[in-house]
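G., the chain you wanted modeled:
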Amino acid sequence: MNEQDERHGERVYDLYRRGSALLDHGDFAAAAIPLEQARELEPDKTSIREALGRAYFRCGRFGRAAEEFEAVVERAPVNDFAHFCLGKALAKTGRMREARRHALLAAGMRPDRADYRNLRDRLEAA
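Predicted structure as tokens:
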């Protein structure tokens, strides 16, 4: 790895850490800013996309959240948490059939998670 690649990696990591810290402290709108910058630099990093999806969801930007979680699921189809979050975001946008599918997948991957089962059951009843 050359020096330029190292600087790039450090910048992306710094943006991700800053956004994650803001997310952890409940400053969701502010968290989206460095996470968007990190995504622009590394669009294939699922950790960045997942954190950005969480920030968007908590800001009420459900369509944008769904886009981020869809990108994670596309790159990591066995990511149960991404399926769960995608199901929640899709439900908030009214895309219930798709939401049910992802909730069912998440609950099937992790039947031990009550939150996954609750979402699946709630969406199946809707």
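Residues 1-59 form one domain.

Shout if anything looks off.
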